């Protein structure tokens, strides 16, 4: 439905909050144009194992400065309202079986941001209500907890969104010495650390 979109001049428009079902049946490149109505951080994804893409500035040549790019099919960047950005989606092996869904959404930070470093870690109270967090614009959340020696703790990450897997790692009070990593369950949608 979006062909011919093989050059930036022929790029097709996508809006924030929308999804487009696409494929690389006839060629290995799709160009998409995105112009946000609001300034903020936006996330584009082609799925958990979708094709790689780049985010380009208005000239369709300069790379946009990414907020986060830990995976080739997920990128977030700070976008300015009414500025145009291009997404260049590439598949080196076009043909059958190349369907993917392109999503663009505006990130809504969780209540604990900025918590992307040890120095900015936010506390959690043992046995209190679970904290709801997201990785819309970054790949790490740091959390602190006060532990009592000899007490067994179970730390669990669950209810993970469709575009992510959770992975828990426990460090000492300095935040630099590794103690233990959790075990994965539910296809990476649950991660548990049991530690004394």
List keywords for this structure.
about 200 residues, mainly beta, five-stranded antiparallel sheet, four-stranded mixed sheet, 16 strands, elongated
SSE blueprint:
Blueprint: E1 12-13, E2 18-22, E3 29-34, E4 40-45, E5 52-56, E6 66-71, E7 74-79, E8 85-90, E9 100-106, E10 122-123, E11 143-144, E12 153-157, E13 169-171, E14 178-181, E15 183-185, E16 190-195
Parallel strand pairs: 1-3, 10-11
Antiparallel strand pairs: 2-9, 3-8, 4-7, 4-9, 5-8, 6-7, 12-16, 13-14, 15-16
Question: How does this model look, in words?
Answer:
This protein has 196 residues and is mainly β. It contains no helices and 16 strands. The strands form 5 sheets. The protein has a 5-stranded antiparallel beta sheet, with no helix packed on it. A hairpin with a 4-residue loop joins β15 and β16 (190-195). The N and C termini lie far apart (56 Å).
Structural class by secondary-structure content: mainly beta
| Share in β-strands | 35-45%
- The number of distinct helices, counting runs of at least 4 residues, comes to 0
Low-confidence stretches: none
How many distinct beta strands? 16
Q: Considering DSSP H and I runs of 4 or more, what fraction of the residues is helical?
A: under 10%
Radius of gyration (Å): 20 Å
| Main sheet specs | 5 strands, antiparallel
Which shape, going by the Cα principal axes? elongated
Please list the strands of the largest sheet in the order they lie side by side.
Answer: 2-9-4-7-6
Order of helices and strands: EEEEEEEEEEEEEEEE
Report the span from N to C terminus: 56 Å
The overall pLDDT average reads 89
């Amino acid at each position: 439905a979006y062909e011919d979109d093989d050059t930036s001049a022929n790029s097709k428009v996508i809006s924030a909050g929308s999804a487009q079902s696409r494929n690389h049946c006839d060629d290995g490149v799709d160009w998409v144009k995105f112009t946000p109505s609001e300034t903020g951080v936006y996330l584009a994804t082609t799925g958990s194992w979708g094709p790689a893409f780049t985010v380009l500035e208005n000239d369709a040549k300069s790379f946009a400065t990414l907020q986060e790019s830990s995976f080739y099919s997920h990128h977030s960047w700070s976008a300015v309202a009414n500025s145009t950005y291009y997404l260049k989606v590439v598949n080196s092996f076009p043909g059958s079986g190349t369907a993917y869904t392109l999503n663009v959404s505006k990130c809504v930070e969780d209540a604990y941001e900025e918590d992307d470093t040890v120095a900015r870690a936010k506390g959690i109270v043992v046995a209190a209500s679970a904290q709801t967090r997201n990785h819309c614009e970054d790949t790490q959340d740091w959390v602190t907890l006060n532990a009592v020696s000899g007490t067994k703790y179970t730390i669990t990450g669950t209810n993970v969104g469709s575009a992510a897997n959770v992975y828990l790692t426990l460090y000492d009070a300095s935040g630099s010495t590794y103690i233990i990593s959790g075990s994965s369950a539910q296809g990476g949608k649950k991660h548990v650390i049991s530690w004394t």
